[in-house]
Design a protein that fits this description.
Ribosomal Protein S5, domain 2; alpha+beta; 5-stranded mixed β-sheet; about 25% strand; 3 domains
Length: about 375
């Protein structure tokens, strides 16, 4: 097995807005944290798999396909499978800025193509998880998820030497206030920074789980930078608990599957009289934002008609990559000791609520997928 890892600084060399909140309209140049793309590469005699975790809100389907095709061409290998994942920080450079995404494409291609691989022999990996509300829980009043999970995948060479860890957590990186005047990798980046300080000989990456309905809204003590650090440190301590567990090691696999799915949509009317009592001020604000987003969707009909879902079976666990902001309820049909569902990968699309979700929320306004499409997606998640 051959392995390579690279951290690529993806901060824009020119001012951009942030991306993730409607109020983020100022162009900024101040970086509170560094923004990175963390690239993991594994290859053997038959397979070549590259995973990229990017500190941006989202990577759309066309960007990912172009990146994969360009890397395949540059490295003269049509069998490279390239998976993108966004950490989904709402305080990174705007992916709606074409000048920035062109720059991002350029530096990612350059960085990936120049990666140097080393023979790490037989690789073993472990997987473990725990339920946690360290950084977040359901952000919808009266609706409990109980599917907030922190997961840790550790890779070993020479049987017991860890050289790579991947953290998976499903909570929106929106601890900070929407109007902070700087860019930030938010809690995912801060947790990785702490992990790097803890073990300088181990590479680290982060994947965002199924967090469509999960945020820090009812957990945080405030939305200043120090409040983000407080929750990140809390999650880091739980990562250390997982890392200390004595776990069975499994030979690493590079089994990759991908399917392209047609998405059918319908614009069902939304009953605006169905707003529940006792919602927070923030929830009421986001419902108003949802109405704005719905009007834009109905006027432009800019809906995503295709999606790419994929899975990577590592041996210790199978990761299912889903492009949309999927609700944590879609983890329910899975055996979470063997499979982990993630969001914001291989493309980007609006929220996917559970079928017959009863509450009027912000997320409902951009979910236009038909019931039949959701049923099809559930089957793919379970079987891919």
């Amino acid at each position: 097995m051959y392995y390579s890892f690279k951290k690529i600084n993806i901060e824009s060399p020119f001012p951009t807005t942030q991306c993730g909140h409607l109020s983020q309209t100022r162009e900024l140049s101040d970086y509170k944290d560094h923004l990175f793309a963390r690239v993991i590469g594994f290859k053997d005699d038959k397979n070549w798999l590259i995973h990229i975790s990017v500190d941006v809100l989202a990577i759309d389907r066309e960007f990912r396909l172009q990146l994969q095709n360009t890397v395949r061409e540059k490295l003269n290998n049509k069998n490279i499978n390239l998976i993108t994942s966004a950490t989904h920080t709402h305080y990174a450079n705007s992916v709606e800025n074409k000048k920035y995404t062109d720059y991002l494409m350029e530096i990612l291609v350059e960085g990936i193509v120049s990666m140097q691989y080393q023979d790490v022999g037989k690789v073993l990996c472990t997987y473990t998880n725990m339920h946690t509300n360290a950084v977040g829980k359901s952000r919808i009043s009266g609706y409990e998820s109980n599917l907030e999970y922190l997961s840790l995948i550790t890779f070993y060479k020479n049987e017991n030497v860890p050289f790579l860890r991947i953290v998976i957590n499903n909570c929106h990186p929106t601890i900070l206030h929407a109007d902070v005047p700087f860019f930030s990798a938010e809690y995912p980046g801060y947790v990785l920074k702490l992990m790097e300080q803890e073990d300088k000989n181990c590479d680290n990456s982060f994947i965002m789980g199924a967090s469509g309905d999960i945020s820090s809204r009812f957990v945080r003590n405030g939305q200043a930078y120090e409040h983000m650090v407080e929750l990140a440190e809390r999650l880091f301590n739980e990562v250390k608990v997982l890392a200390a567990r004595n776990l069975p090691k499994h030979p690493l696999k590079l089994e990759y599957n991908e399917v392209e799915v047609d998405l059918d949509h319908q614009f069902n009317p939304i009953d605006l009289t169905n707003i529940r009592a006792n919602l927070t001020t923030r929830e009421l604000e986001t419902i108003k934002h949802g109405q704005i987003m719905r009007q834009k969707l109905e006027q432009t009909k800019k809906i995503i008609k295709k999606a790419n879902l994929s899975s990577w079976n590592l041996g210790a666990v199978k990761i299912v990559f889903f492009p949309n902001e999927i609700f944590s309820a879609y983890m329910s049909p899975l055996d979470l000791s063997k499979t982990m569902l993630v969001s914001y990968s291989n493309g980007y699309g609006p929220y996917v609520l559970p079928i017959d979700f009863p509450y009027l929320t912000y997320e409902m306004f951009t979910d236009t997928l038909t019931v039949q499409t959701k049923e099809k997606l559930i089957e793919i998640i379970k079987t891919i």
